[in-house]
Specification:
Chain lengths: 247, 382
Amino acid sequence: MVKVDGSGGQSSLIQVRDLDKTYRRGGEEIDVLQGLNLDVEAGEFVAFMGPSGSGKSTLLNLLGGLDVPTRGHITVAGDEITHMSGGRLTQWRARHVGFIFQMYNLIPVLTAFQNVELPLLLTKLSKAERRAHVEMALGVVGLSDRMHHFPRQLSGGQEQRVTIARAIVSDPTFLLCDEPTGDLDRKSADDVMTIIEELVGRHHKTVLMVTHDPVVAARASSILHLDKGVLVEGKHASQLTGTGGIA
Amino acid sequence: MKFARIIFANLSRKKVRLLLTIGSFAVALFLFAFLYVVNDAFQRGADVAGADRLVIINRTSIINPIPLSYRDKILRIPGVKVITHNNWFGAIYKDEKNFFPQFVIDPENQRQVFPELLVPDDQWNAFVKDRQGAIVGARTAERFGWKIGDRVPLMSTIWGGGNWEFNVYGIYHGKRPQDDDTQFWLQWDYFQEHVPERIKGQVGWYVLRLDSPDDAVRVSKAIDAEFANSPFETKTETESAFAANWVKQFGNIKFLIITIGTVVFLTLLLVTGNTMAISVRERTPELAVFKAIGYSDRAVLFFVLAESLIIALIGGTIGLLLSMVAVPALAKGLNGLLPPLVLSPSTLVLGLLLAMLVGLISGMLPGLTAMHMRVVNALRRV
């Protein structure tokens, strides 16, 4: 069960302790995250909600090793990542993190297959092994028949599914989703969320997701609310659907 | 290589821009090769000159003659091995446009002084037996379709005018590609028979070979001292110095060519640097994705540099291939107005290395920018 009071044990997959993130803008210091604690168990699906500027994306970037905190520690699967060098952090990301972005961020000149293959090019897998992994990942997201299409030949929902395939192809420790449905219509958003739920339910993936959409957040097993840099436990998914969302 | 597909896919995303950039390289490298061979042709006189050869001209100017009687006096100076003399003939074959250099030679010593210009013995022996004999450089013979046994009329414009007729007995070839094989040689005796009385017994210049190149300075000074304060003072210098001074008459060709070449390459650098910078800036979020999913900073730098190097290599190769076609055609068209234009393999290699250097530099700045960009900031640009 996800915890935000720092009481989680060593068994947590993700452990965040006393995390601060301060930005300096025009000589002024802005505290984005303040003394944040978080414990996430393996296989959990956590949604982060909060108003714009509350620090949701900053937290996701810190958890994904894309940014470094001002203070505090982040430990993932026993690896303390806050003091890793840039090079080690890059290697760590390749091994442990799958990113799903709001704008898909596919490489337009590569086919769906080639986009999904990108993380595997960094491994020692043979061409045949890479092919098998890519075909499997595209199969999971239901795009086996679109693998040789370029992003411009796919719909927004299909593009996001390719992004998901790219995120899972190297079997990372956890997935970070930044507004994965923010640019999709309701139907496509629903399809994408179904896939993410399957990744958690069937494939036991750990997923951390930032979203503004309470309907999307309701699909997560836990919802955390960020406001003014402080993390608080939100209402459970089952409570959200009836209340019309988190204020 | 498993990353080749990514690099080539990125290269082909803006095809017009790619073609224009490759075209810039091609034009620049074509110009480089062209300028290089022209400069080389002008400078080569000094390079191909025999280290053991001295040229003696009239101190006032090369157009002023020197007496033939100097020959024996020069030969007596210790260190002089063999000496020959030449005059510029400067006649016209049918039309003024048909220029080729013609020299009056001393058949007795010509081959000893210029051993690199090869004439078969049987041809040479036939030539010396006939005062109206002529030896023609292979390129000039080919140009006018002359062959051994042909009779060639030349209209003299300097030596009393009139038609001079020659019998072609031999074709000479240069030992090396850069040797001049456009000359036409006629005999001193025939020349002497036909020139006006006031010109008889005067040579245009002497060329001598030394026992040792180490004697060059001493012998030069001795010759000039021998004829100091005479009506025909001499100026003696090594053949390479003579060739270099000859080129200087045209102006500072080397400086001019280096300046043009530098401007061309700096312009190319700015054009390609700007193109690569735009290309990388457009792809900043994509490069950020590469870094986010585990590609190292060096890998991103590698992608950018590989792209600019491939553009440079393709463009450079096209330019140099074009020059391989154009330079021989130009050389043929010049018909001996310039020394032979030779596009050597070393020039092609140098051109390719220069293209790659420009490619490397132009890709370096945007590559380093991409390498050092922060993923978080770059992803926000989407």
